[in-house]
Amino acid sequence: MKTTNDDYLSTSNWYDRLLNPFLSHIRKSLVNWVVVNKPKRILDVGCGTGKQLSLLPNNIDAVGIDISDAMLAQANIQAAGKCKKGDAIDIPFEDNEFDLVISQFALHEKDTDIINLELSEIRRILKPSGLFSVTDFDIPVKATLISKIFGSGIHQVEKHAGDEHYKNYLTWMNRGGLEKIMLNSGWKLVEDIPFYKGNVRLTFWSIQN
User: Mean per-residue pLDDT for 86-101?
Assistant: First the structure.
């Protein structure tokens, strides 16, 4: 397993309090999708504090992995027993094990090579009929004043997230954002829900044969 410094050591305690006002409606939309579509087994890759897992119905078999011990400490409080340590490029589960894999704001912060390795692992653990749900930053289809304001706000937040994080975010956006990157990686878009005037999208992807 890849070792890394824990980037969330100083932020894990207040992470949810800071971001919940901006993410709660996105997380609820994913919960609504799960309730309607009823995937039997779910993996949250980069589960963080376990907040999304804690919102899913109790009758759903849902687990998570994260590389950060600090985040896992929080996850073990609000999603007790559901999260364990694991690296997204070496996921500790068998092939074809999950109906739905979730990634929320976890791809844009990584460099291109790591993203490609992670996407390969997702393909491995997904059932052939499974879906990969990615929530992340995108470039709005239609540029409006409001979409530009949201985009500028996101840019400022990312700029203060650390040098490497910011560099990877810029690369992500220069590559075209969420949809373009996923399409170019060989995934097929099944469904998407835009937020913040298209600067953020909740998407669902199938494995392209």
Answer: 97
CA distance 4 to 143: 38
Distances, alpha carbon 42 to alpha carbons 12, 63, 141, 183, in Å: 23, 6, 30, 23
What token pair was written down for 144? 């409006």
> Distance between CA atoms of 100 and 39, rounded to whole angstroms?
6
Query: Reduced to 3 states, what is the DSSP secondary structure of residue 23?
Result: helix
Q: Please report, for the chain, the start and end positions of each structural domain, with discontinuous segments joined by +.
A: 15-207
pLDDT above 50 for 1: no
Helices and strands counted in the chain (H then E):
7, 7
Summarised one tens digit per residue, pLDDT across range 141-166 is 999 999 999 999 999 999 988 899 99
For residues 53 and 82, the answer to whether their CB atoms sit within 8 Å is yes
Beta strands at 126-137 and 200-207: parallel, antiparallel or unpaired: antiparallel
State the fold for domain 15-207: Rossmann fold (3.40.50)
Q: Give CA angle at 117 (111, 120), nearest 5°.
A: 140
**Average pLDDT value for residue range 166-193:** 98
Q: Express each pLDDT in 2-43 by its tens digit.
A: 334 555 545 545 556 667 788 999 999 999 999 999 999 999
